[in-house]
Amino acid sequence: MSGLLENGLVEADERPIRIRQGRAMGRPSETTVPAPASFRSGRDRRRVESMAKVFERVDAAMAAWIEKQPVFFVATAPLAGDGLVNLSPKGTMGTFRMVDEHTFAYLDMTGSGVETIAHLRENGRICVMFCAFDGRPNIVRLHGTGRTVTPGDHAFEEMLAGFGEAGEERRRYLRGVIVVDVTRVSDSCGYAVPRMDLVEERETLDAVWQSRDDERIARYHVQRNANSLDGLPALPVAVPAGGAPA
């Protein structure tokens, strides 16, 4: 039982707490773990009970929440123990979509880094995270095995079509569509994530690539996107007409 300590704090209750897990949002089962000694009250225990849930799938409610988020974070890593872990923020509404309850995809636009493509090409491991910056605090992580469907792949047109106008208007400067088979779905509290308002989306990336012709984009791929920071092969590239850039 809890008791009052000399410093006025409530002594930790060592009884176990129950962490909810479930098949889908709203239908959790429970597993029991030891209560951390830092818990000071029943309120703390009740809060933590809602902090860690694992789901068998992404249901319709979770998918709708995910697709409304203005930013998400992509984490990958090479197999080498001394390789560079990568974490990339992604924005632009309409460029991420849940394909089904166990699959998601997002548009990979041309940029200076190509770590995600290289890491997926080597080992496929990926985790994508979403945070609630308004409303109820929440964090969702989707772990899985990913691949890059490039414009030369037979499945590219089908995957691109699912993004509608958002995909078609970016077709010229897409490196591909990242497709992930989800193996773990979890959420947790977002109590430490600040509330923030979205002012507007940045249009710079789209504006830059829309102003460049196909040859210049192809040259950029050769120059900047062929290998990762660790030297892993990344985007399969062909040298454009006129040869590789100096």
Structure characterization notes:
- The chain is α+β, with helices and mostly antiparallel strands and 246 residues long.
- It has seven helices and ten strands.
Blueprint (SSEs and pairs):
Blueprint: E1 17-22, E2 28-33, H1 42-49, E3 52-55, H2 60-68, E4 72-76, E5 86-90, E6 96-100, E7 103-109, H3 115-122, E8 125-131, E9 139-149, H4 156-161, H5 165-168, E10 174-188, H6 204-210, H7 214-224
Antiparallel strand pairs: 1-2, 3-10, 4-5, 4-8, 6-7, 7-10, 8-9, 9-10
Rg computed from alpha carbons, rounded to a whole number of angstroms: 22 Å
Shape: globular
- Describe the sheet with the most strands: 8 strands, antiparallel
Report the β-strand fraction as a percent range.
Answer: 25-35%
Extended strand count:
10
Number of helical regions: 7
For the residues shown, what is the average pLDDT? 83
Order of helices and strands: EEHEHEEEEHEEHHEHH
Distance between the termini: 72 Å
Features:
disordered C terminus, disordered N terminus, 246 residues, globular, two-stranded antiparallel sheet, 29% strand, alpha+beta
